[in-house]
Amino acid sequence: MNASLAEFMSASQQRLDKTLHYYLKECSSPAPVLQQAMAYGVFNGGKRIRPLLVYLTGYALNVEQEKLDAPAAAVELIHSYSLIHDDLPAMDNADLRRGKPSCHKAYGEAIAILAGDAMQALVFHILATHKANLSTEQRLNMITTLSLASGPQGIAAGQALDMDNAHQPIALNQLLTLYHYKTGVLLSASVKLGLHAATKQADKIVNALESYAELLGTAFQIQDDLLDIECNTEQLGKPQGIDQVNHKVTYPSLVGVEKTKQKIAELVAQAIAALAPLGAKNHLLVELADYLLYRLQ
Ligand code: IPE
Ligand code: IPE
Ligand code: MG
Ligand code: MG
Ligand code: MG
User: Fold this and answer.
1) Closest atom of ligand 2 to CA, residue 158
2) Residue 139 CB: number of other CB atoms within 10 A?
Protein backbone atom coordinates (compact mmCIF):
# COMPACT_ATOMS: atom_id res chain seq x y z
CA MET A 1 0.00 0.00 0.00
CA ASN A 2 1.16 3.52 -0.77
CA ALA A 3 2.62 5.28 2.31
CA SER A 4 0.28 8.28 2.16
CA LEU A 5 -2.82 6.05 2.12
CA ALA A 6 -1.41 3.89 4.94
CA GLU A 7 -0.82 7.02 7.05
CA PHE A 8 -4.27 8.41 6.34
CA MET A 9 -5.85 5.04 7.13
CA SER A 10 -4.13 4.72 10.46
CA ALA A 11 -5.00 8.30 11.48
CA SER A 12 -8.66 7.93 10.49
CA GLN A 13 -8.85 4.55 12.22
CA GLN A 14 -7.67 6.16 15.44
CA ARG A 15 -10.32 8.87 15.22
CA LEU A 16 -12.96 6.23 14.46
CA ASP A 17 -11.94 4.01 17.35
CA LYS A 18 -12.07 6.95 19.74
CA THR A 19 -15.65 7.77 18.72
CA LEU A 20 -16.77 4.15 18.79
CA HIS A 21 -15.05 3.58 22.10
CA TYR A 22 -17.01 6.44 23.64
CA TYR A 23 -20.43 5.13 22.53
CA LEU A 24 -19.76 1.44 23.06
CA LYS A 25 -17.59 1.40 26.15
CA GLU A 26 -17.87 4.67 28.03
CA CYS A 27 -21.65 5.17 27.76
CA SER A 28 -23.27 2.62 30.02
CA SER A 29 -26.31 0.41 29.38
CA PRO A 30 -28.57 -1.23 31.96
CA ALA A 31 -27.80 -4.50 30.11
CA PRO A 32 -24.00 -4.93 30.29
CA VAL A 33 -24.08 -8.12 28.24
CA LEU A 34 -25.75 -6.28 25.37
CA GLN A 35 -23.08 -3.62 25.52
CA GLN A 36 -20.32 -6.25 25.59
CA ALA A 37 -21.81 -8.03 22.58
CA MET A 38 -21.99 -4.75 20.65
CA ALA A 39 -18.35 -3.96 21.44
CA TYR A 40 -17.40 -7.53 20.52
CA GLY A 41 -19.00 -7.08 17.09
CA VAL A 42 -17.29 -3.76 16.48
CA PHE A 43 -13.76 -3.96 17.92
CA ASN A 44 -12.61 -7.04 16.08
CA GLY A 45 -10.25 -6.04 13.32
CA GLY A 46 -12.58 -5.02 10.50
CA LYS A 47 -10.94 -3.19 7.60
CA ARG A 48 -13.00 -0.05 8.30
CA ILE A 49 -13.38 0.69 4.58
CA ARG A 50 -16.68 2.53 4.88
CA PRO A 51 -15.55 5.05 7.54
CA LEU A 52 -12.35 5.45 5.52
CA LEU A 53 -14.49 6.46 2.54
CA VAL A 54 -16.23 9.06 4.71
CA TYR A 55 -12.88 10.53 5.81
CA LEU A 56 -11.36 10.33 2.32
CA THR A 57 -14.35 12.08 0.75
CA GLY A 58 -14.07 14.74 3.43
CA TYR A 59 -10.36 15.07 2.71
CA ALA A 60 -11.02 15.50 -1.01
CA LEU A 61 -13.54 18.26 -0.24
CA ASN A 62 -11.54 20.06 2.49
CA VAL A 63 -13.91 19.18 5.33
CA GLU A 64 -12.62 19.47 8.93
CA GLN A 65 -12.20 15.93 10.26
CA GLU A 66 -14.21 16.75 13.37
CA LYS A 67 -17.34 16.92 11.18
CA LEU A 68 -16.68 13.41 9.85
CA ASP A 69 -16.40 11.50 13.14
CA ALA A 70 -20.15 10.95 13.66
CA PRO A 71 -20.93 9.77 10.11
CA ALA A 72 -17.79 7.58 10.06
CA ALA A 73 -18.79 5.84 13.31
CA ALA A 74 -22.40 5.61 12.16
CA VAL A 75 -21.63 3.86 8.88
CA GLU A 76 -19.28 1.37 10.55
CA LEU A 77 -21.97 0.55 13.10
CA ILE A 78 -24.52 -0.13 10.37
CA HIS A 79 -21.98 -2.33 8.62
CA SER A 80 -21.01 -4.21 11.80
CA TYR A 81 -24.66 -4.76 12.73
CA SER A 82 -25.33 -6.12 9.23
CA LEU A 83 -22.47 -8.60 9.65
CA ILE A 84 -23.72 -9.79 13.05
CA HIS A 85 -27.14 -10.51 11.56
CA ASP A 86 -25.64 -11.88 8.31
CA ASP A 87 -23.81 -14.57 10.31
CA LEU A 88 -26.89 -15.76 12.21
CA PRO A 89 -28.03 -19.37 11.68
CA ALA A 90 -31.17 -18.12 9.90
CA MET A 91 -29.04 -16.23 7.40
CA ASP A 92 -25.52 -17.37 6.36
CA ASN A 93 -24.96 -19.53 9.44
CA ALA A 94 -21.30 -18.53 9.74
CA ASP A 95 -19.39 -19.31 12.92
CA LEU A 96 -16.38 -17.12 12.33
CA ARG A 97 -16.14 -13.38 11.75
CA ARG A 98 -13.01 -11.27 11.57
CA GLY A 99 -11.03 -14.22 12.92
CA LYS A 100 -13.12 -14.77 16.04
CA PRO A 101 -16.30 -16.70 16.85
CA SER A 102 -19.26 -14.83 15.37
CA CYS A 103 -21.26 -12.70 17.78
CA HIS A 104 -24.02 -15.31 18.16
CA LYS A 105 -21.38 -17.98 18.88
CA ALA A 106 -19.91 -15.85 21.65
CA TYR A 107 -23.13 -14.40 23.11
CA GLY A 108 -25.99 -16.57 21.83
CA GLU A 109 -28.51 -15.77 19.13
CA ALA A 110 -30.87 -13.64 21.18
CA ILE A 111 -28.17 -11.24 22.36
CA ALA A 112 -26.59 -11.13 18.88
CA ILE A 113 -29.94 -10.12 17.37
CA LEU A 114 -30.44 -7.49 20.05
CA ALA A 115 -26.88 -6.20 19.66
CA GLY A 116 -27.62 -5.61 15.96
CA ASP A 117 -30.93 -3.91 16.78
CA ALA A 118 -29.29 -1.69 19.37
CA MET A 119 -26.45 -0.75 17.02
CA GLN A 120 -28.91 0.40 14.35
CA ALA A 121 -30.74 2.64 16.78
CA LEU A 122 -27.48 3.96 18.23
CA VAL A 123 -26.43 5.09 14.74
CA PHE A 124 -29.27 7.57 14.50
CA HIS A 125 -28.72 8.78 18.05
CA ILE A 126 -25.08 9.51 17.17
CA LEU A 127 -25.97 11.37 13.98
CA ALA A 128 -28.59 13.46 15.76
CA THR A 129 -26.58 14.34 18.88
CA HIS A 130 -22.80 13.82 18.49
CA LYS A 131 -20.93 16.97 19.53
CA ALA A 132 -19.63 18.47 16.29
CA ASN A 133 -20.05 21.62 14.29
CA LEU A 134 -22.73 20.14 12.04
CA SER A 135 -25.91 22.03 11.18
CA THR A 136 -29.36 20.52 11.74
CA GLU A 137 -29.73 20.27 7.97
CA GLN A 138 -26.46 18.38 7.64
CA ARG A 139 -27.49 15.96 10.38
CA LEU A 140 -30.89 15.43 8.76
CA ASN A 141 -29.25 14.76 5.39
CA MET A 142 -26.95 12.21 7.00
CA ILE A 143 -29.84 10.48 8.77
CA THR A 144 -31.82 10.39 5.53
CA THR A 145 -28.90 8.90 3.59
CA LEU A 146 -28.03 6.25 6.13
CA SER A 147 -31.60 5.22 6.93
CA LEU A 148 -32.29 4.81 3.20
CA ALA A 149 -29.14 2.75 2.73
CA SER A 150 -30.01 0.44 5.61
CA GLY A 151 -33.74 -0.13 5.17
CA PRO A 152 -36.12 -1.52 2.56
CA GLN A 153 -34.31 0.37 -0.23
CA GLY A 154 -30.92 -0.72 1.02
CA ILE A 155 -29.15 -3.49 2.92
CA ALA A 156 -32.31 -5.10 4.27
CA ALA A 157 -33.63 -5.42 0.70
CA GLY A 158 -30.30 -6.77 -0.55
CA GLN A 159 -30.11 -9.31 2.22
CA ALA A 160 -33.70 -10.42 1.57
CA LEU A 161 -32.90 -10.89 -2.13
CA ASP A 162 -29.78 -12.78 -1.11
CA MET A 163 -31.80 -15.19 1.01
CA ASP A 164 -33.89 -16.03 -2.08
CA ASN A 165 -30.76 -16.39 -4.18
CA ALA A 166 -29.98 -19.73 -2.56
CA HIS A 167 -33.30 -21.23 -3.60
CA GLN A 168 -33.92 -20.16 -7.18
CA PRO A 169 -31.99 -19.59 -10.41
CA ILE A 170 -30.72 -16.05 -10.79
CA ALA A 171 -29.36 -14.21 -13.83
CA LEU A 172 -26.22 -12.06 -13.83
CA ASN A 173 -28.13 -8.78 -14.00
CA GLN A 174 -30.33 -9.81 -11.04
CA LEU A 175 -27.22 -10.76 -9.11
CA LEU A 176 -25.71 -7.32 -9.76
CA THR A 177 -28.93 -5.70 -8.55
CA LEU A 178 -28.71 -7.75 -5.37
CA TYR A 179 -25.06 -6.67 -4.89
CA HIS A 180 -26.09 -3.06 -5.37
CA TYR A 181 -28.55 -3.30 -2.48
CA LYS A 182 -26.67 -5.52 -0.08
CA THR A 183 -23.25 -3.86 -0.47
CA GLY A 184 -23.15 -1.01 -3.00
CA VAL A 185 -25.62 1.29 -1.30
CA LEU A 186 -23.63 1.42 1.94
CA LEU A 187 -20.40 2.27 0.13
CA SER A 188 -22.28 4.96 -1.80
CA ALA A 189 -23.81 6.20 1.44
CA SER A 190 -20.30 6.54 2.92
CA VAL A 191 -19.33 8.96 0.16
CA LYS A 192 -22.64 10.82 0.46
CA LEU A 193 -22.07 11.26 4.20
CA GLY A 194 -18.75 12.93 3.40
CA LEU A 195 -20.57 15.16 0.89
CA HIS A 196 -23.19 16.15 3.48
CA ALA A 197 -20.41 17.29 5.82
CA ALA A 198 -18.95 19.50 3.08
CA THR A 199 -20.07 22.82 1.65
CA LYS A 200 -22.38 22.50 -1.36
CA GLN A 201 -20.50 20.90 -4.23
CA ALA A 202 -20.97 21.27 -8.00
CA ASP A 203 -23.05 18.51 -9.62
CA LYS A 204 -20.03 17.17 -11.49
CA ILE A 205 -18.19 16.57 -8.18
CA VAL A 206 -21.23 14.91 -6.57
CA ASN A 207 -21.74 12.72 -9.65
CA ALA A 208 -18.05 11.81 -9.81
CA LEU A 209 -17.97 10.67 -6.19
CA GLU A 210 -21.26 8.80 -6.43
CA SER A 211 -20.19 6.96 -9.59
CA TYR A 212 -16.87 6.06 -7.98
CA ALA A 213 -18.59 4.61 -4.91
CA GLU A 214 -21.17 2.70 -6.91
CA LEU A 215 -18.54 1.08 -9.14
CA LEU A 216 -16.29 0.34 -6.19
CA GLY A 217 -19.21 -1.20 -4.28
CA THR A 218 -19.97 -3.66 -7.06
CA ALA A 219 -16.29 -4.54 -7.42
CA PHE A 220 -16.05 -4.99 -3.65
CA GLN A 221 -18.85 -7.56 -3.42
CA ILE A 222 -17.70 -9.45 -6.52
CA GLN A 223 -14.26 -9.62 -4.96
CA ASP A 224 -15.70 -10.80 -1.65
CA ASP A 225 -17.24 -13.71 -3.56
CA LEU A 226 -13.93 -14.42 -5.31
CA LEU A 227 -11.98 -14.37 -2.03
CA ASP A 228 -14.49 -16.87 -0.62
CA ILE A 229 -13.19 -19.26 -3.28
CA GLU A 230 -9.51 -18.34 -3.47
CA CYS A 231 -8.38 -17.50 0.06
CA ASN A 232 -8.25 -19.67 3.14
CA THR A 233 -10.21 -19.29 6.35
CA GLU A 234 -7.23 -17.89 8.23
CA GLN A 235 -6.64 -15.14 5.66
CA LEU A 236 -10.32 -14.32 5.43
CA GLY A 237 -11.14 -14.45 9.14
CA LYS A 238 -14.45 -16.01 8.04
CA PRO A 239 -15.30 -19.52 6.87
CA GLN A 240 -13.86 -20.12 3.40
CA GLY A 241 -16.24 -21.69 0.87
CA ILE A 242 -19.38 -20.72 2.75
CA ASP A 243 -21.13 -19.43 -0.37
CA GLN A 244 -20.94 -22.89 -1.89
CA VAL A 245 -22.03 -24.53 1.36
CA ASN A 246 -25.07 -22.23 1.33
CA HIS A 247 -25.73 -22.93 -2.39
CA LYS A 248 -25.37 -19.24 -3.22
CA VAL A 249 -25.16 -18.12 -6.80
CA THR A 250 -22.21 -15.71 -6.98
CA TYR A 251 -20.48 -13.78 -9.74
CA PRO A 252 -17.65 -16.34 -10.04
CA SER A 253 -20.11 -19.26 -9.90
CA LEU A 254 -21.91 -17.76 -12.91
CA VAL A 255 -19.02 -16.63 -15.11
CA GLY A 256 -15.91 -18.39 -13.73
CA VAL A 257 -12.88 -17.08 -11.86
CA GLU A 258 -10.95 -15.56 -14.78
CA LYS A 259 -13.85 -13.48 -16.08
CA THR A 260 -14.57 -12.43 -12.52
CA LYS A 261 -11.03 -11.08 -12.10
CA GLN A 262 -11.35 -9.18 -15.39
CA LYS A 263 -14.66 -7.69 -14.25
CA ILE A 264 -13.20 -6.51 -10.93
CA ALA A 265 -10.23 -4.87 -12.67
CA GLU A 266 -12.59 -3.23 -15.18
CA LEU A 267 -14.87 -1.84 -12.46
CA VAL A 268 -11.93 -0.50 -10.44
CA ALA A 269 -10.49 1.19 -13.55
CA GLN A 270 -13.89 2.76 -14.22
CA ALA A 271 -14.17 3.87 -10.60
CA ILE A 272 -10.78 5.58 -10.81
CA ALA A 273 -11.65 7.21 -14.13
CA ALA A 274 -14.89 8.54 -12.64
CA LEU A 275 -12.87 10.59 -10.13
CA ALA A 276 -11.25 12.80 -12.79
CA PRO A 277 -13.42 15.89 -12.08
CA LEU A 278 -11.98 16.05 -8.55
CA GLY A 279 -8.50 16.94 -9.79
CA ALA A 280 -5.40 16.42 -7.63
CA LYS A 281 -7.36 15.95 -4.40
CA ASN A 282 -8.61 12.60 -5.68
CA HIS A 283 -5.29 10.82 -5.15
CA LEU A 284 -6.11 8.98 -1.92
CA LEU A 285 -9.46 7.78 -3.29
CA VAL A 286 -7.57 6.46 -6.33
CA GLU A 287 -5.09 4.70 -4.05
CA LEU A 288 -7.92 3.15 -2.05
CA ALA A 289 -9.45 1.67 -5.21
CA ASP A 290 -6.05 0.24 -6.19
CA TYR A 291 -5.49 -1.14 -2.72
CA LEU A 292 -8.90 -2.86 -2.69
CA LEU A 293 -8.12 -4.53 -6.01
CA TYR A 294 -5.29 -6.46 -4.35
CA ARG A 295 -6.90 -7.14 -0.97
CA LEU A 296 -6.77 -10.67 0.44
CA GLN A 297 -9.48 -10.44 3.07
C1 IPE B 1 -17.80 -7.84 4.29
O2 IPE B 1 -17.38 -6.51 4.33
C3 IPE B 1 -19.18 -7.91 3.78
C4 IPE B 1 -19.39 -7.33 2.44
C5 IPE B 1 -20.26 -6.42 2.25
C6 IPE B 1 -18.65 -7.84 1.32
P7 IPE B 1 -15.88 -6.13 4.67
O8 IPE B 1 -14.96 -6.93 3.81
O9 IPE B 1 -15.72 -4.65 4.61
O10 IPE B 1 -15.74 -6.65 6.18
P11 IPE B 1 -14.83 -6.13 7.37
O12 IPE B 1 -15.50 -4.95 7.95
O13 IPE B 1 -13.46 -5.80 6.85
O14 IPE B 1 -14.80 -7.29 8.33
C1 IPE C 1 -22.47 -9.20 2.42
O2 IPE C 1 -22.44 -10.45 1.85
C3 IPE C 1 -23.45 -9.14 3.49
C4 IPE C 1 -23.88 -7.89 4.09
C5 IPE C 1 -24.38 -6.89 3.49
C6 IPE C 1 -23.87 -7.88 5.53
P7 IPE C 1 -21.73 -11.74 2.45
O8 IPE C 1 -22.66 -12.58 3.21
O9 IPE C 1 -21.01 -12.38 1.33
O10 IPE C 1 -20.64 -11.12 3.46
P11 IPE C 1 -19.58 -12.01 4.23
O12 IPE C 1 -18.81 -12.78 3.19
O13 IPE C 1 -20.34 -12.91 5.16
O14 IPE C 1 -18.70 -11.02 4.93
MG1 MG D 1 -24.66 -12.96 3.37
MG1 MG E 1 -22.11 -13.82 4.94
MG1 MG F 1 -19.11 -13.18 1.31
Assistant:
1) 5
2) 20
